[in-house]
Known about the structure:
Elements: E1 13-16, H1 26-53, H2 60-89, E2 93-95, H3 96-129, H4 134-137, H5 140-158, H6 160-168, E3 176-177, H7 184-188, H8 196-229, H9 234-267, H10 273-298, H11 300-314
Parallel strand pairs: 1-3
Antiparallel strand pairs: 1-2
Amino acid sequence: xxxxxxxxxxxxxxxxxxxxxxxxxxxxxxxxxxxxxxxxxxxxxxxxxxxxxxxxxxxxxxxxxxxxxxxxxxxxxxxxxxxxxxxxxxxxxxxxxxxxxxxxxxxxxxxxxxxxxxxxxxxxxxxxxxxxxxxxxxxxxxxxxxxxxxxxxxxxxxxxxxxxxxxxxxxxxxxxxxxxxxxxxxxxxxxxxxxxxxxxxxxxxxxxxxxxxxxxxxxxxxxxxxxxxxxxxxxxxxxxxxxxxxxxxxxxxxxxxxxxxxxxxxxxxxxxxxxxxxxxxxxxxxxxxxxxxxxxxxxxxxxxxxxxxxxxxxxxx
Length: 317
């Protein structure tokens, strides 16, 4: 294990502690984390397969759902295999380049997921407030462009994070990262020298993604609710709101864990370190697990297709 001292040095690798303070329980912790990761993989791959096979689901909302599934697969796979390797094999060491790559993928695709939720809010706004033009506005090409814009925004926003570390922070007090993955602030806090630029840039990205995206989504739903309340028929109101239910649930599943994790990391000085790390890992696992469940439970077409597949699989040949 690397030893921390007061001398600054240029590291070629870092040492991830896993869940600090719970090292004796790592093997037991691997059971729930491994199970959750497996559920996330199976759930999101199932969503992708169902939407691909069911032509009635080839609509903007479900294309965005497929984008979410891919993003969730990347997010969880960026961190969980390494965490499980730490739990099972004691593979704490990670090279500097691998650490920066992991940092980029985690923060980039979290930003992309927020952008997809924003695009989905726009889709629901058009579907409810201007239903006659929904198919002409949200064409397959437009949906693809919105997904590409979310991806490019994530790359532009988070690409400088590892670059700023490479260019500005070559020296570190220690190589021991008290985290289970290479989170931006966890790495920056170990650096020697002036880290204000890195801190401010990281906080700026968090503000742009968490605050502005959530405000834009909230504004779209204010307009949606105003349009729904203007409907005279009770059944029409209920049907309109029910189409937004899955999206609202998915948004809450995504933003609440990331908000809690960010707040406890920056302001929760009295919160034990292992709680910080557990929350950070749950933030990478809870949305990938719950998004497929939310949409499978609340979407009739997905439920019917899943039941059809399950019945076909259980019938004798």
